[in-house]
Every structure is written in C-alpha cells, then in structure tokens.
C-alpha cells in the first residue's frame, strides 16, 4: 500500500505523488483528497470512511490531504507500506508567516484530550517555541486566546484558513483581540 500526501490545497502535489497517483491500480481517499488529485487519477477512485485502512487491498494508493505524517493517514501505515510526503498546512503557514520551522512546536488537538493539549501548549511556549496548532472544534483560536490569557501569557495568534486555495486568508491578532476563523478549515500559529 502507498499512502500519498496530496498537499493542503490546490496545485501542491509533488512529482513523486503525481507518479504514484498516475500509476495506481485503485485509489482511496476522502472526497477532498480525491478532488485535489483528480486530474492525475487514471483508475477507479473510491471515497473511504474507515480511516484505519485495515480492509484496503495491498495494491491500494491511499490519498491523504496535506502530509500523511501531520495528523494524517500515515499513522495507520503498516510495516512495508510506502509513505509519500505532501506539502502540509504547516509548511504553507510557515512560508506565509515567514517563520523558521526550527523554532516551531507542532500540536494537534484533533480528537485529543484538550487537557493534555493545554499542558503541551504551556510547555512549548514556556520553552520559548512558537506553536503550530491543528485545532479541535472545542479548542480553536478564541479558546486558545482565553486559555493563554488565563495563564497571563500575551502572544500573537494567527489563523491561517484555506491555505493553498483561492480563498486563502490569514488573520493575525493577539490574546486580547484574537482572530476569528470564517471556516472550519484552519490552523492556528502562536508566536511571541
């Protein structure tokens, strides 16, 4: 099986990903992932809902939005599966905000225990790191700002929405005046 990152938005497929998609015998992925790769698909493509990938055939090419190893389908890879990286929202956000990856901590709040996410956030900010955070519906930009204020931390907060799409939007505020996302496809970057 190959797990292929199709990028976070339009026109972000790598040549390696394109080659894997074009030579695939059967493709599986979310509706969004299939749409991002559509012009390179030359075989049957099926939407999946069981993201554990257990029931898929060994010759499957599985499309993962962004990069499979950033809160993606790469975590379900078995020994012998090939993972082809993609251009992630993390890379796009850092490029747009001109942030070095080397001083950045990455946190995913997707379906995670928010208490642990908060502890991790405080740990990385206390260590002087900037933070890239994939939010959860219960812990977005406003909740992050409120949490930081409750710990007397003043930071810049950027909401990066629809990265790689024509309606891409980046809004930067502070813990006192946090940005408000206008869609549910966003990430949060916290800086000094």
Descriptive labels:
single chain, alpha/beta, Cobalt-precorrin-4 Transmethylase, domain 1, Methyltransferase, Cobalt-precorrin-4 Transmethylase, Domain 2, 5-stranded mixed sheet, 5 helices, about 25% strand
Question: Your description of this structure?
Answer:
There is one protein chain. Strands 3-2-4-1-5 form a five-stranded parallel β-sheet, with helices on one face. It has a five-stranded mixed β-sheet with strand order 6-7-10-8-9, sandwiched between helices. With 192 residues, the protein is an alpha/beta fold. It has helices at residues 15-22, 31-37, 89-97, 114-126, 141-150; strands spanning 2-5, 26-29, 44-47, 60-64, 82-84, 104-108, 130-134, 156-161, 169-174, 186-191. The radius of gyration is 18 Å and the shape is elongated. The mean pLDDT is 96. 24% of the residues lie in helices and 25% in strands. The chain has two domains: 2-87, Tetrapyrrole methylase, N-terminal domain (Cobalt-precorrin-4 Transmethylase, domain 1, 3-Layer(aba) Sandwich); 90-191, Tetrapyrrole methylase, C-terminal domain (Methyltransferase, Cobalt-precorrin-4 Transmethylase, Domain 2, 2-Layer Sandwich). It starts with a strand and ends with a strand.
